[in-house]
Description:
Layout: H1 2-7, H2 12-22, E1 28-29, H3 30-37, H4 41-53, E2 57-62, E3 65-72, H5 76-101, H6 107-138
Helix pairs in contact: 2-4, 3-4, 5-6
Amino acid sequence: MGLFFQSERFARINGRIVGLLLVSDSALSLDTLASRLGVSKASISTGARFLERRGLVERVSRPGDRRDYYQIVADLPEQTTQLRLERMRRFLALIAEARETFPQKPAGVRNRLAKIEAAYEFLLEEFSSALTEWRKREA
Length: 139
């Protein structure tokens, strides 16, 4: 999982945290995560906060315990799909900006950018529809 996250341009430790939480039957403390993964508590804390901001893990508490615990969010498939859709939207915006910035480019360049833009618009629409259908199925 760490290598997968690293290939997706995230820190490897973030993937290791997600991997461990995916196979844990309860929320884990920072101390437990650090111990099981063999890394510093500071590294785990930074990674857990990053993953929490991204909506992949959530912080929970236990009565009478001041420590923070982390677990995978219940709607992980939706959250990860939303992250991918956002990345696609940002890339599409860059392609659209390139088409507007360089309208005088040769026809081959304009056609390439137009094809990429059309493909991403199509894929965004399809993935968004699939996500809507997934929500209906889950409801």
